[in-house]
Specification:
about 450 residues; alpha+beta; globular
Amino acid sequence: MSKAITPTLLKSFAAQSHDSQLTVMQRAVTKNGIYAASESNILSATNTTIFSDEIETGSVTDQKQSGRCWLFAELNTIRHQIVKDFKLDDLELSQSYSYFWDKLEKSNSFFERIIETADKPVDDRWVTRFFEWPQGDGGWWEYAVSVIEKYGVVPSNVMPEAITTSESHQLNTVLDLHLRKGGLALRKLVADKKSDAEIQKAKETMLAGVYRLLTIAIGTPPQSFDFVYKDKDKKYHRDTATTPVKFLKKYYKKSFDDYVVILNDPSPSKVYLQTYEFQHGGNVVDGLDIRWLNLDMQSLKDLTYAQIKKGETVWFGCDVGTDTNKKGFMSLDTYDFNGTFGIDFSLSKAERLESRDSSVTHAMTITGVDVVDDTPAQWKVENSWGDERGFKGYYTMSNDWFDKNGYVVVIRKELLTETQQKALEKPAIMIPEWDPLNTMPN
């Protein structure tokens, strides 16, 4: 039997596709596009922008043409707490400040990984991966925490956005070029059997070039600044010559050590109540490892609900490219592709992960929930795409969308059950670089 597509087979395809519905949908799709022709126009009737439990959060932020969602989401959770504790009307923390240090730290991590693998051929799977992706905008909660704990934070007016942070492609292109050149030079030093001290000295020279590049492209990170504000009681405050680290410790009253990352991965390669760690994870040498506890989805949602009820927002990683529209609705009936094409596209969450149809593509902040009959029906999500998308920048996530596309939340350890806390003590199983989950949100 022939394995090729034959004229007879083509005739069969055409005969099976020929019906009146095809002609109608063909006109709709070719004129309006797949998404517009498949989009539901009644979502606002079933997915509202009203929530029974909401946390006051202020204005939304905008990452623009960059992949810094993970950083925006964590800085949002920090600023939410500062605004609440110090009675501020609003506050935005500088994303460009933390982004500067993330780029520098990722560059150092790249150089160290190149040195560690310098004895392997240049076409080795790991070496190839490192050179293909020396660094980038994407990251996890642990990336944000590692940079923020080490370098502190500053208000946005102290180190404002630059064109190169809002439109990061140019910066990434130039920085990757510098890193690849340096990586080749470091491999040669190892091959020439230079001493560790000589190799580290060469790396430091390369990092000085990275620092200069970032300073020109983004700006000079402040060593100290004044923080001046009036609280909601109209009381005037001035904090003179504070440093970024002192600012963080003074105004953010929580400890990052009190949190754990909860994962839901139902694929056969993972089990529940088990910790997992990313191989070659992390952006900072000696920083946080990427370590997660895998739980069933109901447990993940229960913990998220508990934290919202406690008045604290939740860092959240999901697959935002599925069933989400510009109006801010995240619902499984946003688009009816099955109806448009007459094809069953359904896959389970595990199947979507295994087939690389889904991964964690974006990070946001859950700030509220709508509870009906003691059960969450929909969730309020603060995005970082400005206030022109969604309802003034906020999205409505249905409960079933959360089930299908939600993967990661950051939760206070004290909210975990005794069984879940004991599971944290288990030795972590390593997640390889090519696992479906190992695609960073951006």
